[in-house]
Amino acid sequence: MNILKAIFTLLAILLAYNASATQYKFVGTNNHLETKICVSAGNNDLKKLKGLIYASQEGARSVANTIVCNNLVMAHFAHKYDADKTFEYLNQRTKGKNKIRENTVTIQDIARINDVNEEVITIYVSTNK
Question: Predicted confidence band at 100 (pLDDT cuts at 50, 70, 90)?
């Protein structure tokens, strides 16, 4: 009986966490390669991000340190929108002064209950080029 209670408790926590997650939709304001790179970073699409970086004929370090997405360094942009895969990739390639230190503590309220039909927030993306 205790195992069943534990399973239901875990399921309730997971449902509460998923219900409170904010969803973002990224839309480029132009068709520039740099904007596409920012959109893929925000969408947490690491495979597409790497392909676009390759297409830019620049190194990943150069891209991570020169392209600015909505006035944010790319790693900060990915971090702001909880794009964990692209954030980790970009943050490793970002200059020291712009890195986000991972030894900070983050507290998330996973018990917060939001409307399950939460709307998707559209973010319009522009670059510095």
Answer: confident
CA 103 to each of CA 63, 88, 99, 106: distance values in angstroms, whole numbers, following the listed order: 25, 13, 12, 9
Give this prediction's pTM.
Answer: 0.70
Please report, as a single letter, which amino acid is at residue 70. Answer: N
Which residues on adjacent β-strands are paired with residue 26? 123
Only one residue has tokens 């702001």, namely 80
The Cα 44–Cα 41 span in angstroms is 5
- How many angstroms separate the CA atoms of 38 and 41, rounded? 5
Q: Can you tell me the distance from the alpha carbon of 61 to that of 64, in angstroms, rounded to the nearest whole number?
A: 5
What's the rounded Cα separation, in Å, for the pair 13 and 9?
6
> Per DSSP, what are the bridge partners of residue 122?
25
12-31: pLDDT as tens digits = 555 554 444 678 899 999 99
> In this structure, are strands 121-125 and 24-28 parallel, antiparallel, or unpaired?
parallel
Residue 73 has which token pair? 């360094």
